[in-house]
Amino acid sequence: MDVKTLCLGALKLGDATGYELKKQFEEGPFAHFHQAGYGSIYPALNALLAEGKVTCREEIQKGRPDKKVYSLSPVGEAGLQAALHQRPALDKVRSDVVFMLFFAEMLDEAHLRGVYDGYLSYFRHCLEHLQNLDDTDIPAGRRFVRGMGAAFYESMEAYLSENRQEFFATVDAQEKVAASFETKIKKTGTDQ
Amino acid sequence: MDVKTLCLGALKLGDATGYELKKQFEEGPFAHFHQAGYGSIYPALNALLAEGKVTCREEIQKGRPDKKVYSLSPVGEAGLQAALHQRPALDKVRSDVVFMLFFAEMLDEAHLRGVYDGYLSYFRHCLEHLQNLDDTDIPAGRRFVRGMGAAFYESMEAYLSENRQEFFATVDAQEKVAASFETKIKKTGTDQ
DNA sequence: ATAACCATGTAAATGGTTACATGATTAG
DNA sequence: CTAATCATGTAACCATTTACATGGTTAT
């Protein structure tokens, strides 16, 4: 799913400008599982316009660039449907935080705590945001995806909360063992 | 976290060839939260070698290219540690499947069921894989990350299992309503 | 026999991010 | 007065993916 398809999907939910699409990708219903910035959205919209998949009406404004409101065309709707019927690629996740936690023993305590607690509050924030949405009157697909997001954030929040104390305690203990071991081998010259 | 850092991390767990690293990224402990293919691994290893972050010993083989076994050097270990102390980027997820489920009403039933059940069995497979690993004697960080992975897969498996019936029923119902509505407006010519 | 596995790598193409460029308006 | 918001876009850069190139070995 490239940015062009994402834009078609977002426009299926209603007309929007490039600027508004960016916000939707950041905070809206796609935020959790896809992302895009201006540098990819604006070129995508121009390409879609050239392909006839969206139409554009310009609203003149004073003091800022004219607002370009894009709408999904029937061709674009067909294109979206075609993309939705492709075989889906496997999910791709990149998480620096998990990579760092994996190597917890190599981190200094302050950094580890910062990263951990930042992650936990991030999930709490996402969960709160999801729970503040109004669930009435949305189609089955969208409701289902919201529920899945909520299940995900809840499980991560729970795991991070429940294992916090023990995790830090264990990492600390192992770091102390490693440190004393290193001191020992430096003293006795057994290293290498 | 670029592929170079991933390689350093993987080599921290033990010496390996490019080929073995690829497998580790596919099936090993990083599989869930980072990915890389040959096209990025081999150039990364050569760059790391030039930077002195890894060393390489060649094992001559007959009938296939000589095996190049890479090891993390002290410089590389320091580099890994430095990377681990950067501020982590936000997690990035791209999920075609979730995007498709979001637009469930636009999919034909067979495709929707295929995608849904494929996703469910994917999570089951991952969970099974995780549960078959031996948890004794691994450091706190790695154990923690495994647990987090398990929590994630379990919650997804549970959500998809529990909501399956209702999801299809609701989508079907809404598609039928939409279809009859479209038939109606075509007959009466109210469209546009 | 056929497919999968072992084992390396390059080059082109794709796609996305970041930085740059501009600048008025509105809320704190 | 400062920061955030509104609003568009380009160009250079970066990273990754895909396709290509090679070819013996092992399991089904």
Which key terms come to mind for this protein?
7 helices; 192 residues; mainly alpha; Arc Repressor Mutant, subunit A; homodimer; 3 strands; DNA-binding
Question: Can you summarize this structure?
Answer:
The structure is a homodimer of 192-residue chains. Chain A has 192 residues and is mainly α.
The helix content of chain A, as a percent range, equals 55-70%
Count of DSSP-assigned helices of chain A: 7
Largest inter-chain contact set = A-B, 62 and 62 residues
Strand content of chain A: 5-15%
Category by helix and strand content of chain A: mainly alpha
* SSE order of chain A: HHHEEHEHHH
What value does the average pLDDT of chain A take? Answer: 91
In this structure, how is the largest beta sheet of chain A organized?
Answer: 2 strands, antiparallel
Instruction: Tell me which oligomeric state these chains represent.
Output: homodimer
Number of domains of chain A: 2
What is the number of beta strands of chain A?
A: 3
The unreliable regions of chain A are none
Give the terminus-to-terminus CA distance of chain A: 51 Å
Which strands sit side by side, in order, in the main sheet of chain A?
1-2
Please tell me what the overall shape of chain A is: elongated
* Radius of gyration from the alpha-carbon trace of chain A, in angstroms: 24 Å
